[in-house]
Amino acid sequence: MIITLITMAFWGIALFSHALLQPKFLRLQGFEAPHRLPLHLFRLVLPVLAAFLCCQLDFPEGVLVWFGSASIAGLLATALLTVLSVRNMKRLGHPDKVPRSS
Question: CB count, 10 Å around CB of 62?
């Protein structure tokens, strides 16, 4: 259970770092470009560390945990980035680009 949570956290940080390396995302959000080297290292090293952690489990379980945690972390990172985007659009005053609530 702990390996799954740590693996999911590693994947989440790696995917969020990947998003912060995209110039279009930064431009749309109005963020300044962060230092790129730590983001590149997070994006490269953390999935490998997650794979190493999953190797501590039985092989079939480890493979399923590695891919499954990547999928769930991808969904969570996407949800967080969507929330950040909507908040930023509201803050900048772009009501036509903010989804309407029913």
Answer: 18
Show Cβ contacts of residue 31 under 8 Å, excluding neighbours closer than 6 positions.
20
- To the question of pTM greater than 0.85 for the whole model, the response is no
Maximal C-alpha separation, the chain: 51
The CB density around residue 76, as the number of other CB atoms within 10 Å, is 16
> How many CB atoms sit inside 10 A of residue 97's CB?
11
Per the CB < 8 A criterion, the answer to whether 34 and 20 are in contact is yes
Please report, in tens digits, the pLDDT of each residue of the chain (102 residues total): 899 999 999 999 999 899 888 888 888 777 777 788 989 999 999 999 999 999 999 999 999 999 999 999 999 999 988 888 888 878 777 655 555 665
